[in-house]
């Protein structure tokens, strides 16, 4: 060994490692131990050889050799960055990363070690608040592995509105269970999937969990957190329920009963017989084809063809358990390595960020322009892509489009959709078009235009890879619990198509109730059918009420001093911006909450109204707000608007 092995390595004026361990110990073809401060991290000889070869320092004679200050520090930085990249993507490698930071093998990491690490990883990969917290924590003394792991969860969360410890207690309380004790289990927060641990889904997050716990104790809660129409009073449409009941009933009790014509309209009976034949003699309790029942996929393909004016093939349709299951399947097939990324709109529906986090990919945010009605611009898309690809080395695999918008409620023009289609086609990005609110459009000057229609009709988009999603949970049908949904594949590689079928096969099939409901939704009764007048009246009543509620809620919010809200052109939500006193912002920071989480919890405590903090959907830095539905009955919604105003005044007075 050279005398240089006694040299202490510094970053600036800070010692980083003890002198005794700056050695590489080759072990032939086996994994080796990299002795940097006696760090015991197992890595392959080939990785080290490549790192050292670039500096002309590789020796293959098996002898130990010292590494100079100029060699070890960059190599340590490189290893830490690579390990960090792996953790950010997969949630795995926490122990290895800890060992790479623990350069003196003390079983803890110090302020100097954390600082060196943070200086060498990409700043935008670390939650800024978590960066500040860990530096404050180690300033008081070194931290151990468990504390480091907890910090990693915070550090790699995109948003911080939900604290797992609080949520755990409230969730268990809502179930009627006692508060969790400190008993040790082998499967715990440290040994579980860390991607699941850091995954967030604000729609049923901390505020909602607390609301459930309060409801368990008898508090009246107005749930405006989720688009669940029937749960807040919307009546089911009679025709759909009649047909499904006859499909489920034994024949002798339903379609074959001599008195059936006196109970059900003729067209209902005819449709039920047709659907039972499509399902087969095993009935609704048996598994179906993994892609969905063929006749029902025919119905969907004809619906899309009529809507867009372009052919849709049943072979490209997959029936799924709601749109969410379809989205998860596609993202599962898309994400292949640690640097894969998906572009998502901000604000966005958090199922996307949740699944992306759990699958170990990266999110690339493109921001909608609130001041211009949540518009999308080509410049914004190009700048976000360039930053991700050229500066951060990410591989953008897909882009998510939500139209009409959730939580923002805007309806995109044909030009907006065309901008996105051209952008994705130009950069070979798969477009994921979430179109579940296509029936929920309340502004007479707006209309829904599908991404499929635009792609087929726009020069330059001939090779655009597109998957579109639809659902029975929204629209005017609102049958969330049936879990009906579909996805249509357009211009997708045949091999990938086959693998998506394999993935669907691993789940056997989607629920038959959902498949039936999807067929009914895309092929309702027609004028002249016995059920048509009643069906049309029920749909129209639901639509006109939603239209009135969208207007009254937005107008009511805009009349509250300190609130502003764009028009809800479609979907089921309002997404107001709220101005809060500085003391409220400070209080939220003290509680390690986002300001809108503090506000939403206060609203829940004071009024029983359950909303979702806007931070759960993503928003520009410094913005505060929440998402609320306008689904409760009109009289209840009007009372809620008054309560929004009363609470806001009390809240601002409290923190004035």
Summarize the structure.
With 656 residues, this protein is α/β, with parallel strands linked by helices. The chain has 23 helices and 20 strands.
Short key terms for the protein model shown above:
656 residues; alpha/beta; seven-stranded mixed β-sheet; four-stranded antiparallel β-sheet; 23 helices; 20 strands; disordered N terminus
Q: What coarse outline follows from CA principal-axis ratios?
A: globular
Kindly report the average pLDDT value: 82
Question: How far from one another are the termini?
Answer: 67 Å
Helix content: 40-55%
- How big is the Rg? 28 Å
Largest β sheet strand count, sense and barrel closure: 7 strands, mixed
Q: Which structural category fits the helices and strands?
A: alpha/beta
In the sheet with the most strands, the strands line up as 8-14-13-12-11-9-10
Number of strands: 20
Low-confidence stretches: 1-69, 158-164
The number of helical runs is 23
| Residue share in β-strands | 5-15%
Task: Break the fold down into its secondary structure elements and pairings.
Blueprint: E1 9-11, E2 14-17, E3 23-25, E4 32-35, E5 42-43, H1 45-53, E6 65-66, H2 69-90, H3 94-101, H4 111-120, H5 128-139, H6 145-155, H7 164-174, H8 194-198, H9 206-216, E7 222-223, H10 238-248, H11 266-279, H12 294-308, E8 317-321, H13 322-334, E9 340-346, H14 351-359, E10 362-367, H15 378-391, E11 395-402, H16 414-426, E12 430-434, H17 451-457, E13 466-471, E14 484-490, H18 494-506, H19 512-522, H20 532-558, E15 563-564, E16 573-574, E17 577-578, H21 582-590, H22 595-607, E18 609-610, E19 612-613, E20 626-629, H23 634-654
Parallel strand pairs: 7-18, 9-10, 9-11, 11-12, 12-13
Antiparallel strand pairs: 1-2, 3-4, 3-6, 4-5, 8-14, 13-14, 15-17, 16-20, 19-20
Helix pairs in contact: 2-3, 4-5, 5-6, 7-9, 9-22, 10-11, 12-19, 13-14, 20-23, 21-22, 22-23
């Amino acid at each position: 060994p050279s005398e240089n092995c006694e040299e202490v390595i510094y970053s600036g004026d800070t010692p980083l490692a003890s002198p005794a361990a700056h050695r590489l110990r080759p072990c032939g073809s086996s994994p080796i131990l990299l002795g940097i401060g006696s760090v015991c991290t197992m890595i392959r000889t080939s990785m080290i050889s490549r790192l050292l070869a670039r500096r002309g320092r590789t020796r293959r004679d098996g002898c130990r050799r010292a590494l100079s200050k100029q060699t070890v520090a960059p190599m340590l930085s490189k290893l830490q960055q690579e390990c960090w990249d792996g953790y950010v993507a997969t949630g795995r490698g926490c122990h290895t990363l800890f060992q790479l930071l623990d350069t003196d093998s003390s079983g803890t990491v110090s302020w100097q070690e954390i600082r060196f690490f943070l200086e060498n990883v990409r700043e935008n990969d670390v939650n800024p608040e978590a960066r500040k917290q860990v530096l404050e924590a180690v300033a008081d003394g070194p931290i151990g592995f468990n504390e480091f792991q907890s910090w990693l969860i915070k550090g790699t969360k995109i948003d911080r509105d939900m604290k797992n410890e609080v949520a755990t207690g409230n969730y268990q309380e809502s179930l009627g269970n006692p508060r969790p004790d400190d008993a040790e289990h082998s499967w715990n927060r440290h040994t579980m999937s860390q991607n699941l641990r850091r995954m967030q889904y604000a729609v049923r997050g901390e505020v909602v969990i607390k609301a459930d716990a309060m409801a368990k104790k008898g508090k009246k809660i107005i749930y405006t957190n989720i688009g669940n129409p029937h749960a807040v009073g919307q009546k089911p449409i009679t025709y759909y329920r009649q047909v499904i009941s006859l499909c489920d009933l034994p024949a002798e009790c339903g379609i074959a009963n001599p008195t059936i014509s006196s109970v059900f309209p003729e067209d209902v009976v005819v449709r039920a017989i047709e659907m039972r034949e499509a399902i087969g003699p095993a009935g609704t309790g048996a598994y179906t084809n993994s892609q969905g029942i063929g006749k029902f996929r025919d119905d969907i393909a004809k619906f899309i063809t009529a809507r867009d004016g372009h052919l849709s093939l049943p072979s490209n349709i997959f029936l799924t358990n709601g749109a969410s299951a379809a989205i998860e399947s596609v993202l599962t097939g898309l994400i292949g390595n640690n640097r894969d990324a998906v572009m998502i709109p901000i604000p966005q529906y958090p199922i996307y960020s949740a699944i992306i986090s759990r699958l170990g990919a990266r999110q690339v945010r493109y921001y909608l322009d609130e001041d211009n009605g949540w518009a999308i611009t080509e410049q914004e898309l190009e700048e976000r892509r360039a930053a991700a690809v050229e500066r951060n080395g990410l591989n953008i695999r897909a882009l998510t489009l939500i139209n009409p918008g959730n939580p923002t409620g805007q309806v995109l023009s044909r030009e907006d959709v065309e901008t996105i289609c051209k952008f994705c086609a130009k950069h070979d990005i798969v477009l994921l078009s979430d179109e579940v609110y296509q029936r929920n459009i309340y502004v007479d000057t707006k209309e829904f235009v599908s991404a499929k229609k635009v792609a087929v009709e726009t020069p330059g988009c001939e090779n655009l890879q597109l998957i579109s999603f639809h659902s029975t949970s929204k629209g005017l049908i609102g049958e969330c619990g049936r879990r009906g949904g579909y996805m249509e594949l357009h211009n997708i590689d045949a091999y990938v198509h086959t693998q998506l079928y394999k993935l669907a096969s691993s789940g056997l099939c989607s629920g038959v109730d959902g498949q039936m409901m999807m067929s009914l939704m895309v092929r309702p009764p027609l004028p002249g059918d016995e059920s048509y007048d009643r069906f049309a009246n029920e749909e129209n009543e639901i639509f006109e009420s939603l239209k009135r509620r969208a207007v009254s809620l937005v107008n009511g919010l805009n009349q509250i001093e300190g609130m502003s809200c764009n028009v809800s052109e479609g979907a089921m939500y309002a997404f107001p911006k709220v101005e809060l006193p500085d003391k409220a912002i400070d209080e939220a920071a003290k509680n390690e909450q986002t300001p809108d989480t503090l506000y939403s919890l206060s609203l829940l405590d004071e009024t029983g109204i359950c909303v979702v903090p806007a931070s759960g959907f993503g928003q520009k830095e410094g913005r505060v707000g929440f998402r609320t539905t306008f689904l409760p009955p009109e009289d209840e919604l009007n009372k809620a608007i008054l309560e929004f105003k009363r609470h806001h005044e009390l809240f601002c007075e409290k923190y004035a």
